[in-house]
């Protein structure tokens, strides 16, 4: 985890070079923020919130697990200027969630999403087609279920095998076979149509290419321009 000084330095660096007219937010991503120790959350949020209070930033966004959201947690987040919460849904299929060891249920997603929306915070949902036990039918059913919850936006991350992860262990044992790039593009084409029919914005489709990702990638349907492949499939 970054130190508080690193958080401050990152914010100051971006603010000093910011030339856009859009919304400026601090994002705590890459994990389950509300699963951290409470004092750690407070320290991070306090560090960022002073920029919100001073008018230098418009808000704070973070990602977390569906089973780490309650009404009390959301009120705590709002008190520190959090404006957007993204939930790592991954799948709405119980068999997929169990096989992937996600630790939450589809019902957890529904409850957490309602709490976030009812509080007035912006809701984002993330899904990962291609997890263990997933199928095309289950992935499309997840997309339809997520769309029915009417999030403000979604992210679609094709499942990849990353070195030294639980999924990597399943892969090495022969208990998991990643989807092919062709199959993932075909399914994500249908997923894209499902969300666009509901006017739900897809802010990312495919993992952002980084040196770290390419160094730790073991297998899976990765392409640095995955979204372009999907759009090409749709004739866009």
How would you sum up this structure, described in words?
α6 links the parallel β4 and β5. It is globular, with a radius of gyration of 18 Å. The model has no long low-confidence stretch (mean pLDDT 94). The chain is an alpha/beta fold and 236 residues long. It contains ten helices and eight strands. It has helices at 4-17, 38-53, 71-79, 94-100, 106-118, 136-148, 166-173, 181-197, 211-216, 226-233; strands at 25-28, 59-64, 82-90, 122-127, 153-156, 161-162, 201-205, 217-219. The strands form two sheets. Strands 1-2-3-4-5-7 form a six-stranded parallel sheet. The chain has a single domain (65-233), classed as Transcription Regulator spoIIAA, CATH 3.30.750.
Secondary structure layout:
Blueprint: H1 4-17, E1 25-28, H2 38-53, E2 59-64, H3 71-79, E3 82-90, H4 94-100, H5 106-118, E4 122-127, H6 136-148, E5 153-156, E6 161-162, H7 166-173, H8 181-197, E7 201-205, H9 211-216, E8 217-219, H10 226-233
Parallel strand pairs: 1-2, 2-3, 3-4, 4-5, 5-7
Antiparallel strand pairs: 6-8
Helix pairs in contact: 1-2, 6-8, 8-10
Outline of the structure:
With 236 residues, this protein is α/β, with parallel strands linked by helices. It is built from ten helices and eight strands. 47% of the residues lie in helices and 17% in strands.
Keywords:
47% helix, 6-stranded parallel beta sheet, 10 helices, alpha/beta, single chain, 236 residues, Transcription Regulator spoIIAA
